[in-house]
Design a protein that fits this description.
Elements (H helix, E strand, L loop, with lengths): L2 H9 L8 H9 L4 E4 L7 H14 L5 E5 L3 H13 L4 E4 L5 H13 L4 E4 L7 H7 L4 E6 L18 H11 L6 E5 L4 H10 L7 E3 L7 E7 L3 H11 L3 E5 L3 H13 L4 E4 L5 H12 L5 E4 L12 E6 L6 H8 L9 E7 L1 H14 L3 H14 L11 E4 L1 H8 L3 H13 L4 E8 L2 E4 L3 H4 L6 H13 L8 E2 L9 H12 L3 E4 L2 E7 L16 H19 L5 H8 L17
Parallel strand pairs: 1-6, 1-7, 2-4, 2-5, 3-4, 5-6, 8-13, 9-11, 9-12, 10-11, 12-13
Antiparallel strand pairs: 14-19, 15-19, 16-17, 16-18
The protein binds adenosine-5'-diphosphate and magnesium ion.
Adenosine-5'-diphosphate (ADP) binds next to helix 3.
Length: 567
């Protein structure tokens, strides 16, 4: 099957998008490839099509290992592939050993083509060992900037990918790698290829230039008024980015009070709410969506006319990506940054908030363990739903820094911490099937237990996620589970919106953060913010030129359309 045939057959698309064919050809020729393509450009196809092509020729190379840090996107992609009748599975922290084993067995014996896995999984020696048995024909590294400590989201576990390649090579398996990312500075581009052991550098990228996008910075002491001013002078769909959830809600209310149709969006809302809000905005029932950076992934609305940042983003990479959601249809669109002197001071504080002192981080670790009642030397593999507000209230911790500390501990591998999101209901059966006969059960209860045992191997030892499309169980099922839990027959954690904390190690009596996790990342973080401040404050050079220069395009002509060019 040729790549084009695979594109028609499985995806029903007529043609490749710019750069997709080049990337696919490069992968199929067996070369390690780094592809840079903007978000929404269609990166997934670039590893999906080669995999299906290779699989049609060689059964022993039918599987693609996809490493990606975003669990939510991972589930989306798996679901998406399954709907196209392509077998795919995901493995991530929080799944029980049994669930993981079943998934891996499927990859080995079933006709599976995609194994998505989160980078933390690669930390497990046992998991890496099992990978060597699988018929892998391609390794795709999504969000590849995470492998570089100069990248804006360094994940130490990404470094394991290099190790896996070496292990596989020792067995004579030379499996090509396709690394994918939306934005990377020249330094990061080089670093990614070195870290992944590319024998020769091979980068495919498009220019970062956007013909129809106008970059503007507005200095203003009254951001709200300025926002209304802009929204009343430019027509069409808009995204307003803010830094926190509360602000998103407040600002959206302010806009509504001032005659706009607006709504807000952030990761703390349930999946159902988010998709409703997103759809209303996509269908133009809501004109303005006020959102945190949780908004945008996997969204491709072509006719966004305005992307306005009310707060300073963390980096030019983030800014370019978010701003770039405007004008996908090629028509004139505006990327506006609202800025004033307090933003600079806030940027300084942000470094402190994101990298609180190490002693504080250790304190958060122990207080969290106490709060969750995990004793020294215990807890391994347990997953907890953690309500951050409650933790901070009970343990007298400041919310923002605590949140940052948990992220740092997660990056360093002491725990695995996931931001507040909706978690699927979880169940464990506490009584053995033989003993269950001694219980008086209603028929609903018996049926429920039978169904659980049939569908979820391992439910007698571990909490198992009961996944449904909306994470919501039918009312009666929920009631039945509650009644069983009240009698101690099962443990039942209903769907909640909470942070998820998984113990990747037993509770330690001392924790520390290495240079790579703390000092170096703090330094890159503050350098990135500095570049962002410089972009906001500069008054002499073409904005797009400055932005492109940051990504290594030093010979770009002045754009003639940013606020500096048309002064
Ligand atoms: P990225 O990972 O670069 O952000 P995705 O791989 O998620 O982008 O793709 C974005 C959207 O574009 C998806 O809905 C995908 O199905 C669609 N897409 C990708 N390639 C093509 C193509 N050749 N023709 C039409 N649609 C495509
Ligand atoms: Mg992607």
């Amino acid at each position: 099957m040729s790549p084009r045939e695979a594109l028609h057959t499985y995806f029903g698309y007529d043609d490749f998008r710019p750069l997709q064919s080049e990337i696919i050809d490069s992968v199929l020729s067996g070369r390690d490839t780094l592809a840079l393509m903007p978000t929404g450009g269609g990166k997934s196809i670039c590893f999906q099509i080669p995999t299906l092509t290779i699989a049609s020729q060689d059964e022993n190379r039918r599987l693609c290992l996809v490493i990606t840090p975003l669990i939510a996107l991972m589930k989306d992609q798996v679901e998406n592939l399954r709907q196209r009748n392509i077998q795919a599975v995901a493995i991530y922290t929080g799944m029980s050993y049994d669930q993981q084993r079943v998934a891996l067995d499927n990859c080995l014996f079933g006709n599976y083509h995609f194994l998505y896995c989160s980078p933390e999984r690669l930390e497990s020696e046992q998991f890496r060992q099992r990978l060597t048995e699988l018929p892998i024909g391609l390794i795709a590294v999504d969000e590849a900037h995470c492998i570089s400590q100069w990248g804006y989201d360094f994940r130490p576990s990404y470094l394991r990918i290099g190790t896996i390649r070496q292990t596989l090579a020792q067995q004579g398996k030379h499996i090509p790698v396709l690394a994918l990312t939306a934005t990377a500075t020249p330094q990061v581009v080089t670093d990614i290829q070195d870290r992944l052991d590319f024998p020769e550098h091979n980068v495919l990228k498009m220019s970062y230039h956007r013909d129809n996008l106008r970059y503007i910075v507005r200095r203003t002491e009254t951001k709200e008024e300025q926002l209304i001013h802009i929204l009343t002078h430019v027509a069409g769909s808009a995204i307003v980015y803010v830094r926190n959830r509360k602000r998103a809600q407040e600002l959206s209310q302010y806009l509504v009070a001032n005659g706009q149709t607006a709504d807000f969006y952030h990761a703390g809302l349930s999946a159902a709410e988010r998709s409703l809000k997103q759809q209303a905005w996509k269908d133009d029932h809501t004109r303005v969506i006020v959102a945190t950076n949780a908004f945008g992934m996997g969204i491709d609305k072509p006719d966004v006319r305005l992307v306005i940042h009310v707060d300073l983003p963390d980096s030019l990479e983030a800014y370019y990506q978010e701003a770039g959601r405007a004008g996908r249809d090629g028509l004139t669109a505006f990327a506006v940054l609202l800025y004033n002197d307090t933003d600079k001071a806030k940027a300084k504080k942000r470094v402190l908030d994101n990298y609180p002192p190490q002693e504080f981080v250790e304190q958060v670790y122990h207080k969290t363990m106490d709060f969750l009642q995990v004793g020294l030397g215990s807890g391994l593999n347990h997953t907890f739903a953690l309500h951050l507000d409650e933790l901070c209230h009970v343990m007298h911790l400041p919310v923002i820094q605590t949140y940052a500390a948990l992220h740092l501990l997660s990056t360093a591998g002491w725990i695995h911490f996931e931001e507040e999101r909706e978690t699927a209901p979880r169940v464990r059966i506490n009584i053995s099937p033989e003993m269950l006969r001694d219980y008086q059960l209603s028929s609903a209860q018996t049926q429920m237990l039978d169904r659980l045992m049939r569908k979820h191997t391992g439910i007698l030892t571990d909490l198992q996620m009961i996944e449904t499309s909306s994470n919501r169980l039918p009312e009666q099922d929920h009631d039945t589970l509650v009644s069983l839990a009240q009698r101690g027959i099962i443990t039942y954690l209903p769907r909640t919106v909470a942070c998820a904390l998984t113990m990747t190690r037993e509770r330690a009596d001392e924790v520390w953060l290495s240079d790579t996790v703390y000092d170096k990342r703090r330094q890159t973080y503050s350098e990135r913010l500095k570049a962002m401040v410089e972009y906001a404050e500069q008054t002499q050079f073409c904005r797009e030129q400055l932005l492109l220069g940051y990504f290594g395009e030093h010979d770009a002509p002045v754009c003639g359309k940013c606020d500096i060019c048309i002064q």
